[in-house]
Design goal:
The protein is 47% helix and 24% strand. By secondary structure, the protein is an alpha+beta fold. The chain folds into 2 domains: 193 residues, Tetrahydropterin Synthase, Chain A; 68 residues. The longest helix has 51 residues. It is rod-shaped, with a radius of gyration of 50 Å.
């Protein structure tokens, strides 16, 4: 009985088998997973969905899901030859711009800037949203930033140029799509100027070192002059103090002490006429019994 039923239903099973297999295959192909740090953008019948697929497993029948990165993305911009403020060209310049796109803005940006995204170098199946757009605007911002600096100062002001490029690029992207982009940093990796500029930079550094050395010598000479002046002032003050202390009374006292010492020797008779500091002639009389040899 069952065998007879199976024979009768056999053609029906054959007819149903193909659609079931196709359906299972379609279900399997519509399943996938979005990695952490990425979002999915679903396209069904040529229409891009504005709602993003969040990280995790998803089921999207009859739709294709493109994976976009929302992590920090590096854009190397190499072999630039910008012109500086003094109309001299930088021979070679390499810059890396780092950016990310805020989740929730990826799908609208994918619609607005179709064809501007590209696969990441390490994972081509994951797209960098608006990569080409950011790269183009970044290149222009770099040229504008260097144009405000003299060629001799580009080496010394790399950080300033990078900060200006970051701020300028952020302003431009915010004006187009507020809150969608974040320029996290800009790094100037290489700056090679014209050989003549390099020589001028070396000459400027050499001149600056000579100027620094001359300034140091000038400071030393000034300090030595200050020391000599201080010593002279000290000596002058000391002499002034001594002069003030040498009063007539003090000098008379000292003279009297000298005369007392002289008289105490006893080998001569000395008469002082008069006993005054203004005139004090000494008359020495020989002592009896004392003969000079």
């Amino acid at each position: 009985m069952f065998s007879a039923l199976a024979i009768q239903l056999g053609p029906l099973f054959d007819q149903l088998l193909v659609p079931v297999v196709v359906l299972v295959a379609a279900m399997a192909s519509s399943m996938g997973a979005v990695s952490t740090g990425d979002v999915g953008v679903e396209t069904r019948f040529g229409v891009v969905a504005t709602e993003e697929v969040k990280p995790g497993l998803y089921l999207a029948p009859l739709a294709a899901v493109d994976h976009y990165s929302t992590k920090e993305i590096a854009i190397p911009i190499d072999d630039l030859t910008p012109k500086a403020a003094d109309n001299l060209f930088i021979r070679h310049m390499d810059v890396t711009v780092y950016y990310r796109v805020t989740p929730g803005h990826v799908a609208p940006l994918a619609i607005k800037y179709a064809g501007q995204s590209q696969g990441l170098p390490d994972t081509p199946q994951v797209l960098a949203p608006c990569y080409r757009l950011v790269a183009t605007l970044a290149r222009n911002a770099i040229y504008e930033g260097v144009a405000r600096i003299n060629s001799l100062q580009v080496h010394q002001q790399r950080e300033q140029i990078a900060n200006e490029v970051q701020a300028s690029l952020q302003r431009e992207l915010d004006a187009k799509d507020p809150g969608a982009f974040e320029i996290s940093r800009v790094v100037i990796r290489t700056v090679v100027t014209d050989p003549a500029i390099e020589q001028a930079i070396q000459d400027a550094v050499s001149q600056q070192k000579r100027l620094d050395a001359m300034q140091i010598r000038t400071q030393i000479a000034q300090k030595e002059a200050d020391i000599r002046l201080t010593e002279a002032i000290g000596i002058a003050k000391a002499n002034e103090a001594i002069n003030h202390s040498l009063t007539p009374e003090y000098l008379q006292h000292e003279a009297n002490e000298v005369l007392r010492t002289f008289a105490a020797k006893g080998n001569a008779t000395t008469i002082v006429i008069p006993a005054s500091m203004n005139a004090a002639p000494l008359i020495t009389l020989p002592v009896p019994g004392v003969h000079k040899d």
